[in-house]
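Hey,
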Amino acid sequence: MSHINTEDSSPADFHILDLFAGPGGLDVAADALGYRVTGIEWDAGACATRGAAGMDTFQGDVRTYRAAFFPRARVLTGGPPCQTFTVAGHGAGRRALDQVLEYVGELHRVLRETEEQPGDPQAWLRIFRTWRGIHEELRRKELEAEAIRHEKRNLEQRRTEARKAMKGRLERQGASAKEIREFLKGLKKPRTIVLVDDELQGLLKVFVGLDDKLAELKDRLEELGDERTGLVLQPLWWVIERSRRPGSEPYEAVVLEQVPAVMPVWKRYVEVLSFLGYRTATQLMHTEAFGVPQTRRRAVLMARFDRSDLPEGPGPGLLRQVPETHELYHRRGTFTRLPKANRSDTLFSEKPEHWISMEAALERAEKHSVKVRRRPPFSVVSNYGTGGVPEARGRRDHDDPSATITGKVSRNRVVHKETDKDLDDGLGRFNSAEAGVLQTFPATYPWSGNDISQQIGNAVPPRLALHVLLHVLEPELDEKEAEARLERGIEELDAWEPKETVEPLRHRGLKGHPLAGR
């Protein structure tokens, strides 16, 4: 049985299906706006949080589900994992990006070639076979990579044993601790080592052979790529299935978000979505410009199926960008105005609000949860170095927005301002509620399961999602109506309380589910 209300409680009759739903960043924003959401998520920790929050969830790999399983979903959203693209332009990242763009091109090509056969089962079969070929190729690479990683672990163990054997031989020969350290250090470039001892020479030869084989395996793994890379294709396939599978209806709206490095994929997506009849927009969004007390950038793709009642866009087939409400953050003493091409093309007002600081966000959240604690003026010392220097930790003061919240947020130190002295009484680290607030989750959000810091760091900031969903799903609102609706949504988000705890569903939960039509 589903644990969501089957009555229409949304401002429009849109039920959202959220792929790669995480702990619920988009879901809680949609809930604050009155929309119903069902998420698909594989991570057990994120599912535990979603369950504690009362979020409707199917737990499992998105690839084991299909758009056809959820025919009543009207909106598709998601943030597919794309870790390999964060190094785009360098080796493996560039190859991963190029491969995905090539796959998108294959799908676009078969759609064009079957354009004159709408609703034809044979045309759909051809489209499906193209996707299946891509899916099988990705699966083959995944299995090969898995086998190589297994072999690599075995070789690494054998190399470690050879290293220990050489160390033992040196000890038996009476070498000093310093000589042994220098020898082991030299194993980073083993071919430069010259030995006269036959036993050591034999061990070194084995070590070099293993080292060479490991280098070959590493190169092959880079060629195969990260199996998660193919996941970025899933939302596109779901849109294609709903648009071209006989008997299906297109999604009314699509919203996807990821790191800036994924923008080339979104732009290629736009070509396909436009071909399928959608108005589209892509936008590089600075989170602090949308009221998030944090500097972070996200690449967002927005699409609405082009119907006659949609407001006019900035051009044929285009949607307007999401209007910014707050100023961009600039480090003290600097000011660099972004080029118009890199900014939102509209604002809610001619004079946007000042960005929101960590202190302001935390103080606002205090009234909703005792877990959010009052602090004296503080600085946050990042777990990461800056400028490539590990020791040069980044710092942000209490009256600044936070730096990007990552999966290591629990390791950031909170110190007295302009000192290196940790705050006392357990205030020297942000707890889960506080870290969540800086990501704009409600202070009462019930973080659960394992690796909560990673859950928070990976999540889409709910306040950013609030802006995007309102903009895409309610384009008919005029400026004043949208501003009032946004303010109500923010108030609902701040005061949000968890619903009754629910258990994530599996495939068997499809029977009787409101989205399944079974």
